[in-house]
Amino acid sequence: MLCALLNAADAEPITLRLHTFNSPRAIAVRSFLVPWAEELEQRTEGRVRVQVFPAMQLGGKSSDLYGQARDGVVDMVWTSLGYSPGRFPLTEAFELPFVCTDAEATSQALMEFYGKWMQDEYRDTHPLVFHTAAPGHIHTTGRPLSTLEDLAGLKIRVPSQALAATLEALGAVPVGMPISDVYEALSRGVVGGVWVPWSIMRPFRLHEVTSSHIEASMACVTFVLTMNKARYLGLPEEIRAAVDGSTGMALAKRLGRLWQDDEATGRNPAVQRGNAIFPLSESERERWITATRPVIDEWLEKVDAMGHDGEAMLADARRLVAKYANEP
Q1: pTM of the entire structure?
Q2: Which of 308, 293, 135 has the alpha carbon at shortest distance from 218?
Q3: What pLDDT digit, counting tens, does each position of 138-195 carry?
Q4: Which of 184, 224, 231, 234 is deepest in the core (most CB within 10 A)?
Q5: CA-to-CA distance for 120 and 223, rounded, in angstroms?
Q6: Nearest to residue 85, comparing CAs of 162, 21, 156?
Q7: Cα–Cα distance between 111 and 255 in angstroms, integer?
Q8: Pairwise CA distance, residues 167 & 288, whole Å
């Protein structure tokens, strides 16, 4: 009887709670977190079960998520790093204006950059994967934008401190708020626009409350799936190996491709509604690059004051993005 009880205890699966801010309909939940949870359960032959709690179902605000993983309130979180302003200054290299390209290349670049430069920045949790969304665009409720001057004084929702600085340098008024609040803010005129990639537009129905879109591809939003450090280290060795084997660089590449491929799907509703969609011209792009150079200079000054070589880090970020962009 004792042996039977011990065997039953051994067979009891390990349950890990994963918390996130995103809607159950969003690509992060339906196409990443839930399938990854199922994959990990299969890899461990049922020894691990990941319970995914979207839409902040376990309580708190989006800005609390990283701290919840750090403090062991939950086992894992998937979150936007922009929800923790000022906490991850080195990661901001990938949110600086015109550094990122497509999500697949940038996600892999960010993952390699983490191994070289950012490990101390995340020493209080155990990151499993970093990735980015596709480069973002500006979507507005009013008249079409085409030039730098059109942005003057326009209130635009932004997802991070770094992107707020970029929009401010372009003459706009950045407004920070959770993505779940943006639909109402746009419909009520609290903001006149939103900065997001196309893939975010569809699950939050933002194409319904915007009419004009300028495809600026200015910067990327960074994300992390990270785990409470003690919880990770307390897992049996073979379970840690399964977690490691299902995350890391291979997953970063897969997620980058997932987000990049979703851009067309996110764009289609705006096309079907007949919204005005314009590319940012090359000549105007050069003006925007010049206007946002102070944002990069300010970041360099900040990380240099922390004892880092900002120029070397930024050069490496750009080199890595180009490296993975040129890979098949």
Answers
A1: 0.92
A2: 135
A3: 999 988 888 999 999 999 999 888 899 999 999 999 999 888 899 999 999 999 999 9
A4: 224
A5: 17
A6: 162
A7: 12
A8: 10
